[in-house]
Design brief:
Layout: E1 4-9, H1 15-22, E2 28-34, H2 38-48, E3 52-54, H3 56-60, E4 67-70, H4 74-86, E5 90-93, H5 101-114, E6 118-120, H6 128-138, E7 145-153, H7 174-190, E8 193-201, E9 206-208, E10 218-220, E11 226-233, E12 238-244, E13 257-261, E14 264-268, E15 278-282, E16 289-291, H8 304-315, H9 323-342, E17 346-347
Parallel strand pairs: 1-2, 1-4, 2-3, 4-5, 5-6, 7-12
Antiparallel strand pairs: 7-13, 8-11, 8-17, 9-10, 11-12, 13-14, 14-15, 15-16
Helix pairs in contact: 4-5, 5-9, 7-9
């Protein structure tokens, strides 16, 4: 099948796992990296043996590069995606797809007009944990899905992240930061969303950074930091989701995700991970049983979405972590906030395919 030539734009904190994992996959190789800070690009190129450290413009003008991995901060996602597409390159972007729905639609529209593909993280739903859950549900183990819950409770990022400001600026907040993991997993399990409603709040107008190197700096909070939402799926199931940066020491006893059906309950592992514990509780049985994972990619496999996309481009099949799914998630996240402001349900305008499950027995060398 050959290998796609890939370039990374954005050499910040998240890039390391992409560089490390890229060497596992037969279907693509990273040949260039770029950053606004050329020193960072040079450092990452030296660390990981990348042959072409370069500026963003040089990377986009490089005819060898077929696909761009966009690892910039959220407010730059749309700009870099659009520039990559204009340069004739497929693009895979870190979550979220864009900050606004208008930007997201522009990305998809431009890609379609040029016959190019858009992919987006998270690709954690392709990991062994959630793929095992999808298999169990497809086999009818919990019957007809009735409801789902999803909880992401934290105290925010100012205590550990070196540059946490953007988490509290436009495009940030707990829903836009972590919601993509939870919503993507829920859609992979239950299918697309029909409508949402929500309530939002901001507990603190300012945050003090306690992590290095910016300890003591003050962040002005621009976005809601507690978001509670209700989701009506097209299949009839009703979901409840809470994402928060305002919870100190709480949430430990809440499930990450649970799916409730007519025949039982499925405990889904952390959607920010690839593996984890899967538990199944049948009705009329007291104890849940732990289910052995049926799929691989149960360690940190970030980059599997890029590999699946590269294989799809080369073989002509659809890819799973695709732009339509990412846009559907983006619209839902805005929908929670809109519903809170407007005091009514938000009806989804977009839809997406429920991603095809991964076949059994795949390895990094057989992702096609």
């Amino acid at each position: 099948m050959g290998k796609m030539k890939v370039g990374i734009i954005g050499c910040g904190k998240i890039c390391d796992i992409y560089f490390k994992n890229a060497t596992k996959y037969d279907v693509f190789e990273i040949v260039a990296c770029a950053d606004l800070d050329m020193e960072r690009a040079l450092a990452k190129a030296e660390e990981y043996g990348i042959p072409k450290p370069c500026t963003v413009e040089q990377l986009l003008n490089d005819s060898e590069i077929q696909l761009v991995i966009n690892l910039t901060i959220p407010r730059a996602h749309a700009e870099i995606c659009l520039k990559s597409l204009e340069a004739g390159k497929h693009v895979y972007v870190e979550k979220p797809l864009a900050v606004t729905r208008e930007e997201g639609r522009s990305i998809l529209s431009l890609a379609a007009s040029k016959g190019l593909l858009v992919g987006s993280s998270p690709d954690t739903f392709l990991g062994g944990g959630i793929q095992t859950c999808i298999k169990l549900m497809n086999e009818g183990k919990i019957g007809t899905p009735i409801a789902a819950t999803a909880f992401m409770m934290s105290k925010g990022h100012e205590g550990w992240h070196p540059s946490p400001e953007f988490y509290y600026q436009k495009g940030g907040g707990p829903m836009f930061d972590m919601g993509p993991y939870y919503l993507t997993a829920l859609i992979a399990l239950l299918g697309p969303i029909r409508r949402v409603t929500g309530s939002t709040s901001m507990a603190f107008a300012e945050r003090t950074i306690t992590s290095q190197p910016k300890a003591g700096s003050i962040i002005k909070v621009e976005v809601p930091t507690h978001v509670a939402g209700l989701i009506d799926f097209h299949n009839g199931a009703i979901g409840t989701i809470i994402t928060s940066f305002d919870i100190f020491g709480g949430g430990a006893n809440l499930p990450r995700i649970e799916i409730y059906g007519t025949e039982g309950t499925l405990s889904v592992p952390d959607p920010n991970s690839f593996g984890g514990v899967v538990k199944l509780k049948y009705k009329n049985v007291k104890e849940a049983i732990e289910v052995e994972l049926t799929h691989g990619f149960d360690k940190n496999s970030r980059g599997i979405g890029v590999a699946d996309m590269a294989a799809a481009i080369l073989s002509g099949r659809p890819h799973r972590a695709n732009g339509e799914l990412a846009y559907h998630v983006l619209e839902a996240m805005h929908g929670f906030h809109d519903a809170s402001l407007d005091g009514k349900h938000y009806m989804m305008e977009s839809t997406c395919r429920k991603p095809e499950p991964l076949p059994l027995g795949l390895t990094e060398q057989t992702i096609y």
